[in-house]
Amino acid sequence: MFKFFKSKLKKLSISLKKFSIGRKLKSLFSKKNDKTLFDELEKLFYESDLGVKISIELTDKVREILKKDPNTSADEILKILKTELLNEVIEKKEIDLKKPHVVMIVGVNGSGKTTSIAKVANYYKDLGKKVLLIAADTYRAAAVEQLSSWAQKIGVDIVKSKQGSDPSSVVFDGLTAAKNRDIDIVIIDTAGRLHTKINLMQELEKIKRVSNNVIENSPHETLLVVDATSGQNGVDAAKIFNSYTPISSIFLTKLDGTAKGGIVLSIQKEIKVPIKWIGLGETLNDITDFDAKDFIEDLLSTD
Questions:
Q1: pTM
Q2: CA angle 75, 76, 82 (to 5 degrees)
């Protein structure tokens, strides 16, 4: 397992360094006397998906540093910025995996939700856990079909129903089956239709209520899947979901493509929720744990 994560972290490091802002920052700091420095600096932070708040805070920090000592080196400034960003990170909490441990997955359609569910299911299966998937996104036939296909490929159980069925009824059947089959981990897929916010809220609330009735205090985790390439839209989606149902942690997908890593910190700044997983590709093994220190080192790397 250690070798697995080591290889994935290396892949993440290489991916982040492709669009690392460290080199660009160092280049800007070489022009300390340029009147446009701070405007360019704030623009660079914002274009790296760090969001307005963090971009302004970091720019003000650099302004403060150079005001105190105009001769502060670029490397020293980067070191201070790394500390500032690390302070923005929300720490993950250790979770006691009760049996069955119920995880509800939420996220906008197209964010990579189904693939992420498969990755998490496969991860737990590799740990020797007995996993059950519940296909409660009953509004899209493709969602049920895709999840069924992944379940078959991974070799885990799935509970599903016909398209258009009541999602909470599928959840009831799935959780009842989980208790009867001695399941360790239950993963519930849900719909992600943000254009019908009221219906979404009501549906999620009903699923949670039914879940708690079948297995006390469940779902034990609510995992939000966010597309790292979606920029500010991803941050907005995170805020909407968190306002409807408290999010436990985040699975950030598609960080292997054109995504800028700053979105991780931008989301945490807005909703105060830890990043748990990062998706690095389309295969089942393209998943890694989130390590804030390594992440920020790579994001501000000058290599």
A1: 0.86
A2: 90
